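re: ur question from earlier - yeah i can do the single chain one, its not a big deal. heres the input i used so u can compare w yours
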Amino acid sequence: MIAAAAILVVLTLLRAYAAFNVPLTADEAYYWTWSLHPAYGYTDHPPLVAWLIGWGTVFGQGPGFVRLPFVLCEAIAAAALGRAALLVSNRARAGAIALLLFALIPQTKLALGEALPDGAYMAAWALALWGAVALDRRPTLRNAVGLGLALAAVVLSRTFGWALVVGVLAWSLEPSRRARLWPLLTCSATVVVAGYAPFIAWNAAHNWENFAFTFQMRQHFGLAAAHLVDISTVRFLLYAALLVAVTWFVALRRAPRVTLVAWTALLLPVALFALSFVTTTESYWIIGPAASVALGAGVALDRVAAGWRRAILAVLGAGTAYTTAAALFLTLPEAAQAAVFGAVPALRAPFASGVYAFAPLAERLRAFAAADHGAVVLTDRYETSAELLRYGVDSRLAVALAQQAQWMRWHAGAPPVQHALLVTFAASLSADPSLEQAVHGAFARVTPLPDVKLAHAGVKEDTYYVVQLDNPRPNAARILPAL
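and the output i got, formated as tokens:
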């Protein structure tokens, strides 16, 4: 167990180093903007991701402080799974294996400790598993409250967290547990409801904004074969099939049968498999069930030949070494990255990153805005608006995306716009006829500016197209609400 803990500490330190030395990705910057406006809900997700960022940025606004809570979440998740496996099996080696299996998941986002909802989601999921096992062993009020807090954190991090609540409930209905646990589980349920109720109240006060986005706007439902061949769905189906197979082997086929793993690892992938026929599904949605599998696999692998354990951990370790190297590569100075790409051009695709584009973009837009009477920046993507805000350029969302209402609330009371710069990925406004019509309807003068072509370490990054907007018409704010 000591060796496993040491490996976890080393991985955590490497992730923290990368987290402090790589600019925020576009998604991270978006969630960072949430932390500037503390609330009990947001358009896209429940609020826990914003709360964690807010806690981290108490110490500073650098990328490392934004990410630090999520780096710690990864370590907490691995440690909680190790503790849960130890309690299930009464064997320290099982706990060490479970800890390592989760800590060594070879995912670049984990190697960077990215500030995404997944960090809180997997940590809370793992803590809830530990809480359920602890309650099963010692049915006390303290353990019931702990389980309730962890489950509340799960559903406040991702809506998919309700699959864990259902799984724990189903597990508790087994005859060996029902009489012992149910009186205490009412306390756990009370904690979950109390934690989630303000999120429901926030939705009610904001036209059910999050629920509408989650269940309607984000998804495009319809029975079609195209969904099943979408690359995201194919990736999900492969991972889900592997997850289900491993769960059957480690939780149901081998002794001891860890039914908590089966209930919490299988429900969500099966439900998402059914949804794959009518909408696109994503592989990262099952990071929670993957935590359950790590718990079961730790218990199961403790009882197999040492050669199998070493082989599995070696495969995971090789993948983690690659993703960690990719994250650490991004911390190198630009000249060093360029030298590596020049020597080995094949590394450009897997190792180059677009995170360095936004600082020079913000600098260029500041120059454009200064030349046009301090023009306000408008964008067609909320990620771009967030990254620009990160670099000191306040911007507004010009297109009618689901996130626009949230952005408009944040800019309530701002003075009317007289001069604007519209930044898009499209080479011309004609690529988006509705936006083109709105722009020409709102402004009498529409002038294309030079394209902003960016590169880092000799690798071309995104090209941004900028249009200068002047002389707003009297009804401009009705045509473009961002104004």
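DSSP finds 23 helices and six strands in the chain. not sure if urs matches, ping me
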